[in-house]
Amino acid sequence: MVYAIENEYLRVEIDSFGAELKRVFLKKSRRDVLYDGKGAWDHSDLLLFPVIGANNEYSLNGVSYRVATRHGFAFRKQFRVLEKGSDTIRFGIEEDEETLKEYPFSFSFELEYRLEGLTLLRLAKVRSKLRNRIVFQYGTHPAFKVDFANAKLHVSKGTALYVLENGIIKRQVPWPHQENWLIDPSEITARDTYVIDNPHHEILLENGMGQSVECRYNSPYIAIWTPGRGEENDFLCIEPWYGISPYAGMDKDLSKRMCVQETMEEQCFEDEIAFCS
C-alpha cells in the first residue's frame, strides 16, 4: 500500500512493500523529482539491507549463507506501518522464517521518513533483539530524474573514486572530473558504478530541469549509478552506503569485511535530501 506524507512544500509517497520511496513532488514548481520506475529499472529507490551489492554470498562463524538477491532482502519484504502522521511515517520489519535462512540474526529494522520544510529526512534503526552481536550493511538507492544534456554533479575537492573492474573494486584514484561536472553517463556505465568516499558528507545534483537535490549523507561511501542515456533511462541514483560492494581480497566472512556495521544493541543512521526548485 502506498502512503503519503506532506507539508506546504513537498508531497512524498512511500510504498509499504520494501518501504520504497516512490514519489517526491515539489508543490511550488509542480514537478516530480524522482524517477518513476517505468524504464530500464523498475524501482524508484531500494533499501539495501543486510548486504550491499553482490555481497550476498558470505559466511559467519564458519557457516555459509546466501541472500537470494543483490542488495539484501529488505526491498522485497512487506513492512508494517508503526506510526503515521501528516508529515511523518515509520515502518518496520523483523526476522522471519525466510530471512533466517539467508541471515542468521534476530533483528528489528525500522525506517522513518520525516519532512522538515524542503528536506526529507530518512532515519534507520537496526536493533539486535537478543542483545547479541549482529553484523550488517545498510544503504538506500534513490533515483533522481535528470536531463543528461544539462545535469551537473557537484563533488567536493579531495573526493576519491573507487575503480571497479568486472564489478570488483580494484583501486582508488582521485576524482577524475571537475568538481562541477557536466555528467556524462557513459563514464559511469563504463565503470559499472561510481563508488566514492564521502568525507564531506554531501553531494549536490543539478538535474538539468531547473531543480537541485542536495544529498547530505552521513555514510562513509556514496554510490552513483545509471543504466545509461535514453529517454527512459534519464535518471541518476545517488546512494548512501554504510558498507561497500565487493573488493579485491575481500574476506568471505561478513564480519571481517571492510566497513561492515555491527551492534549488540541498536545502531541508528540519519540522512537528508534537500530539494530546491
Write structural notes for this entry.
The protein has helices at 97-102, 185-190; strands at 2-6, 10-15, 20-26, 31-32, 47-48, 57-60, 63-66, 80-84, 88-94, 107-116, 119-128, 134-136, 138-140, 143-145, 152-154, 160-165, 168-174, 180-182, 194-197, 203-206, 212-216, 221-225, 235-242, 261-263, 266-276. It is mainly β. It has a single domain, classed as Beta-galactosidase, Chain A, domain 5 (Distorted Sandwich), CATH 2.70.98.10. The strands form 5 sheets. The protein has a 9-stranded antiparallel sheet with strand order 8-9-10-11-25-21-20-15-18, with no helix packed on it. Strands 5, 13, 14, 16, 17, 19, 22 and 23 form an 8-stranded antiparallel sheet that branches. Strands 1-2-3-4 form a 4-stranded antiparallel sheet, with no helix packed on it. A hairpin with a 2-residue loop joins strand 6 (57-60) and strand 7 (63-66). The model has no long low-confidence stretch (mean pLDDT 94).
Total number of strands: 25
Sheet with the most strands, sense and barrel status: 9 strands, antiparallel
**Cα-to-Cα separation, first versus last residue:** 29 Å
What is the number of domains?
Answer: 1
Rg, nearest Å: 18 Å
Poorly predicted runs: none
Shape descriptor? globular
Into which percent range does the helicity of residues fall? under 10%
Instruction: Characterize the quaternary organization of these chains.
Output: single chain
